Structures are given as C-alpha cells and as structure tokens.
Amino acid sequence: MPQNPSSVRSAIAALGGALQSARHVCVLTGAGMSAESGVPTFRDAQSGLWAKYDPFELATPEAFAANPERVWDWYQYRRKLVARAEPNRGHIALVELAALVPELTLVTQNVDGLHQRAGSPDVIEFHGNLFENRCFAEGTVVQSVDSERLPYCPRCGSAVRPGVVWFGENIPEAALERASAGASACDLFLAIGTSAQVFPAAGLIDAARRAGATVAEINPQASGAVRDDDIQIAETAVSALVPLVNRLTDPRTVD
Questions:
Q1: pLDDT higher than threshold 70 for residue 223
Q2: How far apart, in whole angstroms, are the C-alpha atoms of residue 176 and residue 171?
Q3: Of these residues, 24, 91, 115, 127, which one is catalytic?
Q4: 8 A C-beta contact, residue 192 and residue 97
C-alpha cells in the first residue's frame, strides 16, 4: 500500500534525524536509482533488432564464447542507450550527502557510471562498468579499443569483452570485500532503488543489521528486505533524496 504524504514526510524526517547522528553511512543503489535518468532496464533494452533475443542468453560467458561478435554488438547498443542519459538530482543529492556525513560508502549494482559522472569519487561497482573493457581470457582491463568492432587483447590476442559481471560470474573480490567492510562498519544502511534480496547484495543488509545499524529503504514499492522497525520511504530516489538533503542543509526546512 502506498504511503500517504504525511507518512512520507515523517519517514524523511526520521531518516534525516538518523543521518544527523550517523558516523558512517553505507548506501546501496540499484536500477531504481538510474530510472529517472532514463536508463533502460535490462529487459527494456530488448527492442528493435534485439527484440528477438532473451537478454539472459546474451549476458553469460558461454554466450560470448559461442558468438562474441553478437554479444559485443548488443553491449555496444546498450552503451549507446546509456550514454544518452545524464545523472539525475538523486545522484547529485548523494554527492551532497557525502559531504554532510563523516564517512559514506557508496555501493552500486548499476553499471552505467552515472554516480561517477555526478561527482561521487569512490564508487564500489558490484557488477562492473558497462564502459570498461576486459580481456576475455585474462580479465585484465584493456584500454583504447576500437569499440565499434569486436576488439582483441593486444597482449594475448583474446577477444575483448565488456567489463560487467555476467550471469554465472562472481562479484569482483575487491568490490565484495570493500562493500562488506563498509556495511559491517556503518551505523546507517540506506538501500535505494533496489530489492536487495539477491545475494551477495542482500548480505550487505544482513551485515549492517548484525553491526546494529539502522536500515532505511527508498523505493516506490517496499521490498522483501524491509522490516517493521526499518525506515521505509515509498518514493523514487529523486523524490526522497532531494528533500532529505534540503532538510539537512537548511534547518528552516519544514514538513
């Protein structure tokens, strides 16, 4: 059931109070964070020539090994869609929020790079980055490739793949370690635009709870990760984060 405006204001006020006393905030963002920038979801990208393909059949190591040119072309198509998007006011609000708290760890399940473009300097990318390229054989970053055609690693000659985490692959160890450390050390965990029900992302909330952190969620629809004693704001990222930051920066802000 949607929250009424009064409940939303009360929840934003409660989160504002938690932020004012927080020493370390850990933020996890998902697809809902970038929705208001017009970034298409995984399935929404299946249009035009790509409508006949199941995206889950194009996002695996096996698919790339079988037909690297087709997978590369599909990711080039996705890159062009994402490149048209701009960071929204929610992305900007998180940059401002980071300056208002002693420490903020930002973890994202998104691969679009919009947090970095908004000005967040140290983003932990759980699922990699759509605009990064890696050697398929060795996993090393490959710079300066001719991205319009399937490129090959200048060192070993293997095909170059997009730098995202595919189905069946593990989260990068360094990203998982840093995210887990941030969740375990925080006293406020904020999930934005994500269901946070799939591991290992769900494990970050569990780690924060074990550490005694307050858990808050910003999502139009409450996810299964929310408990009765959590702060739940049934709004989009922009609708919740902008008034939240305004409340923190301007004490004259009223409900």
A1: yes
A2: 6
A3: 127
A4: no
Q: Give 254's pLDDT tier (boundaries 50, 70, 90).
A: low
Q: What is the CA radius of gyration of the chain?
A: 19
Structure tokens at 106: 């930002």
pLDDT band at 227 (very low <50, low <70, confident <90, very high): confident
Q: Which residues contact 197 (CB under 8 A, 6 or more apart)?
A: 223, 224, 225
Q: What is the mean pLDDT of residues 92-114?
A: 97
Phi/psi of residue 138, nearest 5 degrees: -105, -15
26 within 8 A of 186, measured Cβ to Cβ: yes
What is the phi-psi region of residue 123: left when phi exceeds 0, alpha when psi lies from -120 to 50, beta otherwise? beta
Q: How many residues does the chain have?
A: 255
Asked if residue 243 has a cis previous peptide bond (ω within 30° of 0), the answer is: no
Tokens linked to 225? 């990760």
Q: Mean per-residue pLDDT for 24-52?
A: 79
Q: pTM score, two decimals? A: 0.92
Burial 184-207 (b: 16+ CB within 10 A, else e): bbbbbbbbbbbbbeeeebbebbbb
Structure tokens at 43: 């399935």
127 is catalytic: yes
**pLDDT for the residue numbered 47:** 54
Q: Which amino acid is at 36?
A: E
Q: In whole angstroms, give the CA distance from residue 244 to residue 191.
A: 14
Quote the CA–CA distance of 252 and 229 in Å, as a whole number: 28
